Amino acid sequence: MNIREAHEGDYPELRKLYLESRCNAFVWDNIIEMTLEDFDKHTEDEFIIVAEEAGILMGFISLYLPDNFIHNLFVHPNCSGKGVGSRLLQAADDKMNKPMRLKCVSKNHKALTFYERNGWEKVVEEGRPGEEKYWVMEYK
Questions:
Q1: What is the reported pLDDT for 2?
Q2: What is the DSSP string of 96-136?
Q3: How far apart are CA 38 and CA 53, in angstroms?
Q4: CB-CB contact of 89 with 73 (8 Å)
Q5: Terminal CA-to-CA distance of the chain, rounded, Å?
Q6: Residue 22 pLDDT > 80
Q7: What is the pTM of this model?
Q8: CB 39 within 8 A of CB 71
Q9: What would the CATH number be for the domain defined by 2-139?
Q10: Strands 69-75, 56-64: parallel, antiparallel or unpaired by DSSP?
Q11: By three-state DSSP, how is residue 73 classified?
Q12: Is the N or the C terminus of the chain less surrounded, counting Cβ atoms within 10 Å?
């Protein structure tokens, strides 16, 4: 598995990976409203690292470097359980200073378990009334 910085040529495939992964994982969300263009909006001004094998993009992580914040971590559904997410977290750790932070939707139990298994700690659960709750998580 190769971990590297994303380049512009990756973006068409990253858009598809992001949309497919979100539709697969966010079963509580309205997938009809999700689009390929969401990737560009949701990763603007972020440093993107990809995992690939044999020329196939397996996942990506997007980092907002000024705040040591992980904004997105997505693994293609076909690549789940192969260590892709853990390798991408390691790449983030190599790139950013600690403590690193992220937010994880409270309903996303699979992701919460994954982060905790990788040494992340829940700090506080937040969310405005009527909006989706999420956990602020930290890695020291």
A1: 96
A2: SPSSEEEEEETT-HHHHHHHHHTT-EEEEEE--TTS--EEE
A3: 25
A4: yes
A5: 26
A6: no
A7: 0.89
A8: no
A9: 3.40.630.30
A10: antiparallel
A11: strand
A12: C
